[in-house]
């Protein structure tokens, strides 16, 4: 329906910005990167299963860092997805402003509004910076955790292995094998963690596309329901009509319009 495009978030500039950025985000994760993620998850699962096959007591030692890594990856994906949704709203407003300024460049120049337009655009971009510094800081901490967790887990594995060897519960020949499988699984999961930011952005972009595809219009043009006019003669009458644009509610375009149009008559409104 026409009213959908009257909303500020659905202007031409906002829609073009959303379609281009969301399509690029989905394309960024499709193909090679999606294959890398599937490969990393399967290799990580395979490494843990082989570790349990050789010695479950030593393999279970990596479960704690393994779960920590999964939780950190999940948090980073959710943060990236949330930041993508919130920033897209501001980017849409900024794109709408830029489109209107470019289309009305002469008016902006004649009214000397260059500084005002630049100030509005800068304020919108500043909102994104203020909103994103906390999630970015947390993502940086998670990224540091990815690098620190591997040597810490390796030290924990050797410490646990020495205890099991002293208690004659583990052979020395299996230590290297189990440690290799454990670190193999952890490093494979690290690959997914490194791509968590892009995964979250892709999820948000896909969610936006599905919302657009699944949206049900308020006016169904193909519906036959409703009241049918039996005695329609073609005469139209406007009686005390008031009209204003949704984007400019303070400006009254039509004020108490009184107009009668007979059947077959042509009227031009300038």
From TrEMBL:
Membrane topology: Multi-pass membrane protein
Protein name (database record): ABC transmembrane type-1 domain-containing protein
TM helices/strands, residue ranges: 60-79, 138-163, 175-196
Alphabetized UniProt keyword annotations: Membrane, Transmembrane, Transmembrane helix
Annotated PANTHER family: ABC TRANSPORTER B FAMILY MEMBER 11-LIKE (PTHR43394:SF18), ATP-DEPENDENT PERMEASE MDL1, MITOCHONDRIAL (PTHR43394)
PROSITE patterns referenced in this protein's UniProt entry, alphabetically: ABC_TM1F
A Gene Ontology biological process term: oligopeptide export from mitochondrion
Location, primary (coarse class): membrane
GO annotation, cellular component aspect: mitochondrial inner membrane
InterPro entries noted in UniProt: ABC1_TM_dom (IPR011527), ABC1_TM_sf (IPR036640), P-loop_NTPase (IPR027417), Type_1_exporter (IPR039421)
A matching Pfam family: ABC_membrane
GO molecular function: ABC-type oligopeptide transporter activity; ATP binding
Localization in the cell: Membrane
Start and end residues of each ABC transmembrane type-1 domain: 1-199
């Amino acid at each position: 329906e026409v009213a959908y495009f009257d909303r500020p978030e659905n202007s031409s500039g906002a829609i073009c910005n959303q379609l281009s950025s969301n399509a690029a985000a989905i394309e960024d994760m499709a193909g090679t990167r999606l294959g890398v993620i599937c490969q990393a998850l399967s290799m990580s699962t395979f490494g843990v299963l082989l570790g349990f096959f050789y010695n479950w007591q030593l393999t279970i030692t990596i479960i704690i860092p393994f779960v920590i890594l999964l939780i950190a990856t999940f948090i980073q994906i959710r943060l990236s997805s949330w930041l993508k949704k919130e920033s897209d709203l501001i980017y849409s407003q900024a794109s709408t402003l830029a489109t209107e300024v470019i289309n009305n460049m002469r008016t902006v120049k004649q009214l000397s509004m260059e500084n005002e337009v630049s100030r509005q655009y800068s304020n919108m971009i500043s909102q994104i910076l203020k909103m994103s510094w906390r999630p970015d800081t947390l993502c940086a901490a998670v990224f540091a955790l990815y690098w620190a967790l591997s040597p810490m887990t390796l030290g924990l594995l050797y410490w646990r292995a020495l205890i099991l060897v002293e208690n004659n519960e583990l052979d020395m020949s299996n230590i290297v094998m189990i440690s290799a499988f454990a670190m193999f699984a952890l490093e494979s999961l690290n690959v997914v963690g490194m791509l968590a930011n892009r995964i979250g952005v892709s999820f948000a972009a896909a969610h936006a596309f599905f919302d657009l595809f699944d949206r049900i219009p308020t006016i169904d043009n193909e519906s036959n329901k409703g009241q049918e006019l039996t005695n329609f003669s073609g005469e139209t009458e406007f009686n005390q009509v008031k009209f204003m644009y949704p984007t400019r509610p303070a400006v009254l375009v039509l004020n108490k319009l009184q107009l009668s149009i007979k059947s077959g008559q042509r009227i031009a409104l300038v």
